[in-house]
Amino acid sequence: MFTSAGIILAGGRSRRMGRDKAFLSLPGPGERTFVEYLTHLLTSLCHEVVLVVRDTEQMARYASYATSNIRLVADKVADTGPLMGLYTGLGAIATTHALVVAVDMPFVQPVMASFLLSCPLDEAPVVPVVKAIPQVLLAVYPRTLVPQLEALLQEGRRDLRSVLEARHVHYIDETHLREIDPQLRSFVNVNTPEELSRLRSS
Ligand SMILES: Nc1nc2c(ncn2[C@@H]2O[C@H](COP(=O)(O)OP(=O)(O)OP(=O)(O)O)[C@@H](O)[C@H]2O)c(=O)[nH]1
Known about the structure:
Catalytic activity: Mo-molybdopterin + GTP + H(+) = Mo-molybdopterin guanine dinucleotide + diphosphate
Number of helices: 7
Organism: Ktedonosporobacter rubrisoli
CATH topology: Spore Coat Polysaccharide Biosynthesis Protein SpsA, Chain A
GO molecular function: GTP binding; metal ion binding; molybdenum cofactor guanylyltransferase activity
Distance between the termini: 33 Å
Number of strands: 8
Shape: globular
Subcellular location: Cytoplasm
Cofactor: Mg(2+)
Structural class: alpha/beta
Bound molecules: guanosine-5'-triphosphate
CATH superfamily: Spore Coat Polysaccharide Biosynthesis Protein SpsA, Chain A
Strand order of the largest sheet: 3-2-1-4-7
């Protein structure tokens, strides 16, 4: 199980939310912030965890999360989007693959993370598909993607979906995902104060 790394992408500006989404929390037993929940989850399943922020200023705010098995790294170039976060994260790991999670996904289920990490590891990303949309922010990527990511970044691309364009990908279909997480809560992400209030009252 501990053959892969975990990468948490936390370098966004949270403009729609108005404050850093990593430090939001939802009611529940032992209420934890999103970043606390995800670091805890990934350290229980992964060989190492890399938390990718955008710059040294943000890094200072996350300093307390760095431990012996959680490393904080800053994007090679700040404000260049999630693609730069993936590039930086994959460049920092010692393992061949990483489960990548966005910091604004507070319901990633341990069974879903374990399932994705147990998929056969080769040169192809493992990408769940929900409502016909590839879930690139909760997926497994091989470290061998780094040169392709570099080329995409040089073209000015910022979006993770661009990775899927010229690459063999193992897509996991929704029926299969529902067997693991029937309501697909793992793929919920939170972007706005309205979405957060809805989740808080549900
Ligand atoms: N490391 C890194 N992560 C990023 C970057 N941009 C976005 N992310 C992360 O990627 C995930 C998805 O980001 P978005 O929701 O599209 O953007 P956001 O900046 O978080 O939010 P908005 O400003 O409201 O669009 C989140 O976990 C972000 O923290 C970046 O430049 N670097």
